[in-house]
Amino acid sequence: LKFYNDRLIINGHARTVHVNGTEMRPPQLEFKLIQYLASKAGMAQSRKALYDEVWGKDYLLENEDTRTLDVTIKRIRDSLSELGPPGKSVVVTCRALGYMLNPRANV
């Protein structure tokens, strides 16, 4: 998957993310979340859908910790920070719903 004029490249087979030509190998769950958000770019994903897809359908039933997603999103935002303009993230919070990857280069 390629975004932002090839400044973000996600390689599912190699489990790598290239940001402005620099290769990153994020931890497995971060990679799964980046890949899932990218596959649904421009479409808001509910917190439940993200937990179900990345951590598994029973995660929320078995764990009271609901900050896991927020912490992982913060790490992803930090990793992808140079893709957006200063102060803007390519991972957008959708109030009362969840998150999405903004598919536009100018965020």
Brief overview:
This protein is of the alpha+beta class and 107 residues long.
Q: Whole-Å distance between the termini?
A: 18 Å
Strand order of the largest sheet: 1-2-3-4
Q: How much of the residues is beta strand, in percent? A: 15-25%
Would you list the SSEs in sequence order as H and E?
EEEEHEHHHEE
User: Which residues form runs of ≥5 with pLDDT under 50?
Assistant: none
Mean pLDDT: 88
Based on DSSP secondary structure assignment, what is the total number of beta strands?
Answer: 7
Q: How many distinct helices?
A: 4
Share of helix among residues? 25-40%
SS content category: alpha+beta
Q: Outline, from the CA principal axes? A: globular
* Radius of gyration from CA coordinates: 13 Å
Biggest sheet, open or closed, and with what strands and sense? 4 strands, antiparallel
Notes on the structure:
This protein has a four-stranded antiparallel beta sheet with strand order 1-2-3-4, covered by helices on one side. The mean pLDDT is 88. It has four helices and seven strands; from the N terminus they run E-E-E-E-H-E-H-H-H-E-E. 35% of the residues lie in helices and 21% in strands. A hairpin with a 4-residue loop joins strand 2 and strand 3 (16-19). The protein is of the alpha+beta class and 107 residues long. It is globular, with a radius of gyration of 13 Å. Helix 1 packs across helix 4 (68-79).
Kindly list the characteristics that best describe this protein:
4 helices; four-stranded antiparallel β-sheet; alpha+beta; 107 residues
List the topology elements:
Layout: E1 2-3, E2 8-11, E3 16-19, E4 22-24, H1 28-39, E5 45-46, H2 47-55, H3 59-62, H4 68-79, E6 91-94, E7 98-101
Antiparallel strand pairs: 1-2, 2-3, 3-4, 5-7, 6-7
